[in-house]
Specification:
16% helix; 3 helices; UDP N-Acetylglucosamine Acyltransferase, domain 1
Length: 202
C-alpha cells in the first residue's frame, strides 16, 4: 500500500521491488535496486525516510522517520525481519539482523553489524566495523557495547541520554510517578492528526 501523507507521496525508483502488502507512507525515498519485503512498514510520520541503492528491508521490518530525526540509510544495507529503526542514520554496508532495534538519533557507521535482537540505543554512535552481539546493547557516544545483564551500567549511561525528552518531549517524572498517561494521550492525538488524512495512491 502506497500512501500520501501530509501532501507528500513516496518516490520509488523504477528498479525497486515493493512487496504487495508492504506499506510505504509519506515522504519516503527508495533508491535503485532496493527491495521491501512482505509486511514491511516505512512511515515518514513527522520526518522523512531516505534509502540509498541496494537496500534490502526484509519482511515485517518497521522503519519510521520522526521529527528532528529523519531515517537515512546508505547503500548496500540489510535490515532484517522484525527489525525496528526509528529516526536514525545508517551508513553504507551495515548489517542489521532479525529483531534488532535502533532508536532515535543513533548513528551506525560504515560496516557496523547489529546482530539478532541487539539494540542500539538513542543518540548512540556505533563506530565503523563495530559489532553488537546477539541480544547485547550499544549505548552512548562513543558506544559502549554491553550484555543485558549489565543493566545498571547500561542505565547509568542511558538515563543521561534522556529518552523521554528525546522521543516524547517530556520530562522524566519523579520516582513513583509515570509520564505515560499524559504522553500516551498526546501521542495518540498526534498520530490521529498526522495520519487522519492519509490517502492511498497505489
Amino acid at each position: 500500500m502506497i500512501l500520501e501523507h501530509s501532501g507528500m507521496g513516496p518516490r520509488i525508483a523504477a528498479s525497486a521491488r515493493i512487496a504487495p502488502n508492504a506499506t510505504i507512507c509519506g515522504d519516503v525515498t527508495i533508491g535503485e535496486n532496493c527491495a521491501i519485503g512482505f509486511g514491511a512498514v516505512l512511515t515518514a510520520e513527522s520526518g522523512p525516510i531516505v534509502l540509498g541503492r541496494n537496500v534490502i528491508v526484509m519482511d515485517t521490518a518497521v522503519l519510521r522517520g520522526v521529527r528532528d530525526a529523519p531515517l537515512v540509510i546508505g547503500a548496500n544495507v540489510l535490515v532484517g525481519p522484525r527489525a525496528c529503526l526509528t529516526g536514525c542514520t545508517v551508513e553504507d554496508e551495515v548489517f542489521i539482523a532479525t529483531g534488532a532495534t535502533v532508536f532515535n538519533k543513533a548513528v551506525l557507521k560504515r560496516r557496523a553489524e547489529v546482530r539478532i535482537n541487539a539494540i542500539v540505543h538513542l543518540r548512540t554512535v556505533l563506530p565503523e566495523d563495530a559489532v553488537v552481539p546477539l541480544g547485547w546493547i550499544a549505548v552512548g557516544d562513543p558506544a559502549r557495547i554491553l550484555p543485558p545483564e549489565k543493566h545498571d551500567e547500561i542505565w547509568a549511561i542511558q538515563r543521561a541520554l534522556d529518552f523521554p525528552g528525546t522521543v516524547f518531549g517530556a520530562k522524566r517524572p519523579p520516582e513513583g510517578q509515570s509520564l505515560m498517561p499524559d504522553v500516551m494521550a498526546r501521542y495518540a492525538r498526534a498520530l490521529k492528526r498526522w495520519h487522519g488524512e492519509d490517502r492511498e495512491i497505489a
